Amino acid sequence: MSDNNAPDTAQLMEQILYEVKRVVVGQDRFLERVMVAMLAQGHLLVEGVPGLAKTLTVKTLASVVQGQFKRIQFTPDLVPADLVGTRIYNQKTGDFSTALGPVFANLLLADEINRAPAKVQSALLEVMQERQVTIAGESHKVPSPFLVMATQNPIETEGTYPLPEAQVDRFMMKVLVDYPTDEEEFVIVERVTGPAVQVQAVATTEQLAALQALCRQVYVDPALVQYAVRLVSATRTPEKHGLKDTARFITYGASPRATIGLVEGARALAMLRGRNYALPEDMSDLVPDVLRHRIVLSYEGLSEGLDSDALIARIMDTVTPPAKPLEHEKKAA
Fold first, then answer.
1. How far apart are CA 149 and CA 84, in angstroms?
2. What are phi and psi of 253, to 5 degrees?
3. Coil/strand/helix, residue 295
4. Sign of the alpha-carbon dihedral angle for 286, 288, 293, 297
5. Does 52 share its domain with 193?
6. What CATH number does the domain containing 239 carry?
7. In angstroms, rounded to a whole number, what is the distance separating the alpha carbons of residues 192 and 291?
8. How far apart (Å, rounded) are the C-alpha atoms in residues 135 and 237?
9. How many whole angstroms separate alpha carbon 258 and alpha carbon 229?
10. pLDDT of residue 4
11. What's the pTM?
């Protein structure tokens, strides 16, 4: 990522964020994570109670980048064809035609993913991984860029199907969305009950694809990659990293997808912050979001009232980030 187009890039990203913030109040951290996922071409799992502007954020973002937005409400009676599409028989011509499903969009919101049965979940996860669907033996590619944001409701557990570990692992990050502050809520009410805000389209999907390509060029120091490897390794074999007491609380640690997610995420966050090299804090900011859903707690851990965030905090206290290497500046120069 050369310095001459860094200002244009930073300016374009600022404009995108500015437009989204004209509609969405607060939720800065959540919005930043959505942008990181978008730049790093990863998918997002979002957990939060209803009414926290999860749908609104993605819908507004799609308008701003002139992308196609589709929303699927997951229900227990959903079948894979409702998602990916199906073959339709035309009686007049005697031919079959393919009707593509709602997954053919740039930004796809899978609402309450844990309400659908496993068959539907696996159909969505195939699209996320392969970026294509197969209908009657024919492959159809989804548009690019393609981002899936799935939400799950933490309150109601009745009538929900927990996502299997292998499926959850496909999501780059799991973000927890919290209630707004009193000040933010006041602004929300004023904005919703006032005149409607029309967002401007400030970018195109082609420009977004160019930003994603630039993101891949952000420099990540080998010491930082090593830090990501050590963090993920500490979730699998805590005793090797001086965390003997923690080992009994973890059944399974994170997969190599977590390490890749940390490096790609650090790149995207550095780019959002206007740099063409990643710093240790870019990575450590994302560690809880990238690891949270990938650690499976043991019965002992659950019985002691621990959650994955508490264990991640312990790991981060022990596995320290590298000192800010000066190599970046030399490379950038």
1. 16
2. -95, -170
3. coil
4. positive
5. yes
6. 1.10.8.80
7. 35
8. 42
9. 9
10. 42
11. 0.87
Tokens of 177: 């969305």
Pair 42, 261: CB distance under 8 Å: yes
Return the CA Rg of the chain.
21
Give the residue-averaged pLDDT of 168-187: 91
Cα distance between residue 305 and residue 310, in whole Å: 10
Separation CA 333–CA 327 (nearest Å): 10
CA atoms within 13 A of residue 23's CA, in its CB half-sphere: 23
The tally of domains found in the chain comes to 2
> Which two tokens mark 154?
């933490």
57 shares its domain with 114: yes
Tokens of 265: 């995420």
Query: Residue 240 corresponds to which amino acid?
Result: K
Cα distance between residue 180 and residue 185, in whole Å: 6
Q: Among the three residues 177, 210, 243, which one is the final residue of a domain in this structure? A: 210
- CATH number of residue 175's parent domain: 3.40.50.300
3-state secondary structure of 1: coil
Question: What mean pLDDT is predicted for residues 315-333?
Answer: 72
The pLDDT tens digits of the residues spanning 189-231 come to: 988 898 888 888 888 889 988 999 999 999 999 999 999 999 9
